[in-house]
Amino acid sequence: MKTHWIFALLATSSALALPVQAQRLCSPTTSHVQTVVGPGVYELAYSPRQDAVYAAVAGGFNDDAPPSSLVQLDAATLQEQSRLLLPYRAFGLALDDQANRLYVGHSLQGRISVIDTQRNRRLHTVQLSQLRPDGKRYEHDLRGLILDKSQGLLFVPGLSAGQSVLFVLDSRNLALKTRIPDLGFYPTGLALDEQGGRLYVSTMAGEIVVIDTRALRIQERWTLPGVHQPINLAYYQGRLYVTDQGLDSITPWQQRLLPKRDWSGSRQQVLMLDATDGQILAAQPVQGNPLAIRLDTAAGLAYVSERSERRVAVYSLDTLRPVAAATTDKLTNSLALDTRTGRVYVSLKNPAKGQELQEESVGLLCFDPTPQSGQ
């Protein structure tokens, strides 16, 4: 996979009674706050304990690019509270708020950094992927990462066209517990059923790989009919939510590397699956290449970044019917939620060509719970 494909993959109404939380502090009048954090902003994480938003800022990809950093922002104002410089480009984040730990994925160097969020310092860096024999690239790039707190395990897919793996890291001693092979063609999305002991991984072959997190083995695989780019996942109460990106620029790459698969009619959609067998329960066509998805289960809502439309849309968890949407001035990428206040945080990116070193931002959005008419 060429480098620009890696960045593309790294790259998160009807009449509905909306069960808004009693102490909701967010309103559309406080929305559309933005803060510049630097070039190459990717994943976000909200910390209730710190009442802060963390942003992974890669810093750009040219030789003269500024250094990578982890930026901490005030959750209400988005004012910068701290900036921790990192030795490698930062992309993915996984937060263990109770333990005051934040795991940062360095995709292009095959590493994970462990950050002490209370003291704002880097504790350790773990090397997961090894250099290829030519010494120019690592065997696997890393994309997302997800933490199973009940077992103390950090799951990190290693991306490859034919030899993808799932790295399983013991979060207590930071030792590599195992590598699960045969993960599939460029794994992208992650969702965890912690109680049920199942990890769901989507791949760019249009499939879902189900991992038994207790036995640490692949349990089953589902090929999703008519789903070509299941880029991100979320899980809740026996249902799996999927964003099918439908990015035209990725389809030729899929056709070239998997020529036996029918890649015609790529769709942009959000889906709800039965998490026991992969059956599609609902599908909502959308515009703008849906990317990140985050769930507010108490409010019964799913938030989706629709990247090329430069908006974040809100859908009902039960039906996937559209509830609300907010448009921004940049490409919407990753999402984080403060479900107590209703605040939605989004990383805002520039169009890719020629703007790699330009500043990018984090935005704060609030949504009016009044159903939109005419939907």
From TrEMBL:
Entry keyword set: Signal
Alphabetical list of InterPro entries matching this protein: Haem_d1_sf, Host-pathogen_enzymatic-act, WD40/YVTN_repeat-like_dom_sf
Residues of the signal peptide: 1-22
Source organism, top-level taxon: Bacteria
The name this protein goes by in its record: YncE family protein
Transmembrane spans: none
Keyword Signal tagged: yes
